[in-house]
Design a protein that fits this description.
This protein is an alpha/beta fold. Helices cover 37% and strands 25% of the residues. The two termini are 34 Å apart. A 6-stranded mixed sheet has the order 6-7-8-3-9-10, sandwiched between helices. The chain has a 4-stranded antiparallel sheet with strand order 2-1-4-5, covered by helices on one side. It has a domain of 173 residues: P-loop containing nucleotide triphosphate hydrolases (Rossmann fold, 3-Layer(aba) Sandwich). A hairpin with a 2-residue loop joins strand 4 and strand 5. Helix 2 crosses helix 3, helix 2 packs parallel to helix 4 and helix 3 packs across helix 4. Bound molecules: adenosine-5'-triphosphate (ATP).
Length: 265
Amino acid sequence: MGLQVYNLHKQFTTRNGSLVALKDINLNIEESEFICAVGASGSGKSTLLRLIAGLDTPTAGHIQVDGVKVTGPGPDRGMVFQKYTLYPWMNVAENVGFGLRLQGISKSERREKVGYYLQVVGLSEFARALPKELSGGMQQRVAIARALASQPKILLLDEPFGALDAQTKETMQQFLIDLWRNTGVTVLMITHDVEEAVFLAQRLYILSSRPGTIKKELTMDLPSDRTYHTKRHSTFQDCKETVLELLRGESISHNFELSERKIAV
Ligand SMILES: Nc1ncnc2c1ncn2[C@@H]1O[C@H](COP(=O)(O)OP(=O)(O)OP(=O)(O)O)[C@@H](O)[C@H]1O
């Protein structure tokens, strides 16, 4: 059944009055789809993901995961943020098993699941390492393993590679697409990196700014077994240009925010 978002509206009260961050957002994400939402800075991407994660409540509208209304955080949604959110005093295995411990899962089952997901992300031999002993990319793989360990119905990724250097980012994109193909997990990822979004997503939602609305929904016509070579294909370049053009339209009224640096291609 996947994830459905119905007429979502989010308004914040600020010192300068109220601000509509999201307006009339409707999403339909089927099981095992890989979806990216892309938009300029301030288009409400993080707000959208936080609402889906249940970390904040909508002003109007509602969200369903597998037909169940979201009323708060839950193990059916695994979240990975841009900044490494590992507990520095816990080793890698303890970090991956943390959510499972909170769910009251027995030590033996925890050990089995942690072992399995560390293998999935290729970090078995780092089980006893502390986060500070790992590179940025490895830390994000631990965060992904932790999110997967609770066997969520959907993986929510908030610019997970935004803090990584270009080369690590490319490696992590390939890692993520292989992981998605091997596990069949449903993914919703937000990013302002157009190339990343076009490379990863089967389908893209493009958000407009202030208020954040769905400006366009695009299906990516790229092979499912994509590798970084795919980025050189003319179809890939055409898709990227289409998205950039839609975002350029946004930048006319928000050019102070949507610099080429922010588009990051
Ligand atoms: N807690 C809050 N209180 C008031 N305004 C907020 C709050 N959170 C977000 N906003 C505002 O809502 C709008 C959308 O913010 P959000 O962080 O969701 O955008 P974004 O697309 O994720 O941006 P970026 O790409 O820069 O992270 C912005 O104008 C922001 O200032």
